[in-house]
Amino acid sequence: MRALISVYNKDGLDKLCKTLDSAECDIYSTGGTLDYIKNLGINVISVEELTGQKEFLGGRVKTLHPKIHGAILADTENPKHLSDLKIFNITPFDFVINNLYPFEEVLQNPDSSPEEIIENIDIGGPSMLRAAAKNFSKVAVLVDPKDYELFLEKFVKKEIDEKYRKKLATKVFKITSDYDKKIFNYFNNDIIQNIPDSINIKQYKIKDLRYGENPHQSSGLFTNNNQGVANAKLLHGKEMSYLNYLDADAAFVASNAFPEKCVSIVKHTNTCGLSYQTNQLEAYKRALKGDPISAFGGIVGLNSELELETALEISKTFYDVIIAPSFSKPAFEILKKKKNIRLLSSNFTNEKYEFRTINGGMLFQEKDNDLDLSSNWNFVTKIKPSEDLIENLNFSFQSTKFIKSNAIVITEDNSILGIGSGQPNRINSVNLALTRAKNHITSNSILASDAFFPFPDSIDIAAKNNIKTIIQPGGSIKDKEVIERADSYKISMIFTNRRHFSH
Predict the structure, then answer these.
(1) How far apart are CA 141 and CA 124, in angstroms?
(2) Class of the 369-495 domain?
(3) Percent of the chain with pLDDT over 90
(4) Superfamily of domain 2-192
């Protein structure tokens, strides 16, 4: 028997190789896998010895060779194939064990360079896997370490039949298909930047939920990967509901949109509290300050591990869900004492698109993920903001993404002081935001609007409440009047030339 082993994920490889070796199976391997197997004290043969060709192009070419693929693809019941094997001195493989470079993992790492992403597009791996899967009648192929245990059980009992090999092959085509789709999406999203002509959406149900937005509506949770809030781990508390997931997602997205220690507080998918600071406890306190009344029964989202001091402060208020990348052990011990709280750990995945169903169809759009670069802003009033205010201005305008339109946000020191959301006219939102923030407004407070001001009346109200800086997209036919009104109050105003509607 002969096995070809070349894997990135080496989980379970020890037992697999030892079992194959004890059955006197010849093992062939490449690169890091070769070294790994050697270190187990197992005799392993280099693919280079088999092909007579050293790997080159920095390892891009190792297994792309007729002696490898001929040994994988040969039908040993086909006389022509047998003749070719004899001519080229090729002995077939019985087993191919391979898994792929972590393209998606590298892609989701914000520190990955374009070169690293491209280098993690596996070529030889999918080629070997698909070849072995095509020839499943003669070759058993393993792509998932989770399958090793059953494989070894069947191997020892000599029960690796064609039906089982076909099952393994089916998994290969599923995994390589998904892998190629992720690569396609990367190229399509990053380079073509257009909306596709057709959309094929395939999601797999994780679980049924008790009900939807209301008890008479059935609902379920679906995913097509293992990332993000949909795949979060419930560490404590009763099962998540449909609305819990919606709000937890809103909280986690908001907190992960900013650097350092960011904390968001969400109620009914509106971010009523948001702050980022170098100190997590301070960020939480400032987020709570934004609207402590609405915070009751809400969702807290964090972009860093929940710390003990923050947990102690959080425990003073009733929350439905806390979602964070992880919880320190002392923080978890504090919060799990509260029976009615759900503690959720999740990684964050930066989704590029979103979908909404409408009667008879579906809407598709890019998510509002782009950063607002100050280089694109226009400083339109006579008084300009100071240079050290740029970071706070950026936070203020970015935070409008997480408030339902018409959205007005009052901020200071990278923290929300008050919001006005979901109003049918902008002046109502201005009044709401200023009312909520009135006890905290200083001359350093910023008023941000997700869209332009259609009339200068909102500027009058802002001036009466001591607002000295306003940031908004601009673009109204009344822009000139709005600017003139700001100048009359000695208010500095910035046009970002981009809006952040969220309906």
Answers:
(1) 15
(2) alpha beta
(3) 50
(4) Methylglyoxal synthase-like domain (3.40.50.1380)
Q: Is residue 174 pLDDT above 90, yes or no?
A: no
Token output for 388: 């050290």
φ, ψ of residue 411 to 5 degrees: the values are -135, 165
Instruction: State the Cα–Cα distance between residues 128 and 242, nearest whole angstrom.
Output: 42
Residue 311 has pLDDT above 80, yes or no: yes
CATH superfamily placement of domain 230-345: AICAR transformylase, duplication domain (3.40.140.20)
Helices (H) and strands (E) in the chain, counts: 19, 21
Residue 476's alpha-carbon distances to 368, 376, 429, 454, 464, in angstroms, are 21, 18, 18, 6, 22
Strands (E), 127-260: 140-142, 204-209, 219-223, 233-236
Of 136, 476, 128, 416, the closest CA to residue 292 belongs to 416
DSSP 96-141: EEE----HHHHHH-TT--HHHHHHTS-SHHHHHHHHHHHTTTT-EE
Residues of the chain with CATH 3.40.140.20: 230-345, 369-495
Which residue intervals of the chain bear CATH 3.40.50.1380? 2-192
Mean pLDDT of the chain: 89
Mean per-residue pLDDT, 152-164? 86
Residues assigned a catalytic role = 134, 268
Task: Look up residue 295 and give its two tokens.
Answer: 């915070």
Q: Is the pTM of this model over 0.70?
A: no
Q: SS3 for 4-68, per residue?
A: EEECCCCCCHHHHHHHHHHCCCEEEECHHHHHHHHHCCCCCEEHHHHHCCCCEHHHCECCCCHHH
Query: What is the C-alpha separation between 285 and 454, in angstroms, rounded?
Result: 35
